[in-house]
Design brief:
The chain has helices spanning 2-6, 39-44, 72-89, 100-108, 123-143. It is an all-alpha fold.
């Protein structure tokens, strides 16, 4: 899940609807206003309410939700991502509900053909996205299936 949230192949765009995939709160990243959705943050932290199911005797079962537990590698990805979101939200004229794709587009821009540029002129952004990509590579090695003999 963490890899999917932060990999560059994730092309969720906030302009296509409510961005439910931000794993942080607005307070975590110093956003100017609250996000339209805290779904992913709440899901990760065990705060999504499940409907109580009925058993055979129509008694409600109590369901307790627990926060997800992540490896150290996944936690490093979250931390790198959080730094990137914080830097983005420190800029002027930003979209509070921006996805990772939106953040990349904001800093990297697009060329004359409409393709996203590979790099940004912002050195701090380049360092932060580089750190995120580096932590993702470490996570990818951890979750990569073992080769079968």
């Amino acid at each position: 899940m963490v890899f999917s949230l932060f990999d560059q192949s994730n092309i969720v765009k906030s302009r296509e609807g409510i961005n439910n995939w931000i794993p942080f709160t607005a307070q975590d990243v110093n956003a100017k206003t609250n996000f339209e959705s805290n779904f992913m943050h709440d899901f990760i932290n065990g705060k999504i309410n499940k409907n109580a199911e009925q058993d055979l005797f129509n008694e409600k079962k109590i369901q307790k939700n627990y926060p997800l537990i992540f490896s150290d590698e996944a936690k490093s990805v979250f931390e790198a991502g959080k730094k990137l979101w914080q830097y983005y939200h420190a800029q002027s004229a930003t979209d509070v509900n921006a996805s990772l794709y939106d953040i990349r587009e904001f800093f990297q821009g697009r060329n004359d053909n409409g393709k996203m540029n590979a790099k940004s002129g912002d050195d701090k952004y380049n360092a932060l996205i580089g750190e995120l990509r580096s932590t993702l590579k470490v996570l990818a090695l951890k979750i990569q299936p073992a080769e079968s003999a």
